[in-house]
Design brief:
The protein is built from six helices and no strands. The chain is mainly alpha-helical. It has one domain: Orthogonal Bundle (Cytochrome Bc1 Complex, Chain D, domain 2), CATH 1.10.760. α2 packs across α6 and α4 runs antiparallel to α6. The protein is globular, with a radius of gyration of 14 Å. About 5% of the residues have low confidence. Keywords: Heme, Iron, Metal-binding, Signal. This is Cytochrome c553. It holds the Pfam family Cytochrom_C.
Length: 101
């Protein structure tokens, strides 16, 4: 029950953050799942592209294209990006742009 309450409070906090400029802690929480494929901090050493250090505008446009499912070569990214709003995507792009490679 406590775990469920924690999740609900986190979700409520992230929802409130959407209405304003996202604070760095909220963006870091949003970026956490990206590490599953892109590696810690977005610096993937493997076959999946590294996203750390990419220019923010280019990264945001790419993520928005994934969200709109306009890239026929994409596999899982369109499904993942549908869960993010444009403000969250742009905040993620800025966060990864500022993350060293």
């Amino acid at each position: 029950m406590i775990h469920l309450l924690s999740i609900l409070l986190l979700a409520a906090g992230l929802g409130a953050a959407r209405a304003q400029e996202l604070d760095p802690a909220a963006v870091q929480v949003l970026a956490g799942p990206c590490a599953n494929c892109h590696g810690p901090g977005g610096g993937s050493p493997g076959a999946i592209p590294a996203i750390a250090g990419l220019p923010a505008d280019a990264a945001a446009e790419r993520m928005l294209a994934f969200r709109e499912d306009t890239d026929p070569s994409a596999t899982v990214m369109p499904r993942l990006m549908k869960g993010y709003g444009e403000d969250e995507i742009r905040a993620l792009a800025r966060w990864f742009a500022e993350t060293p490679k």
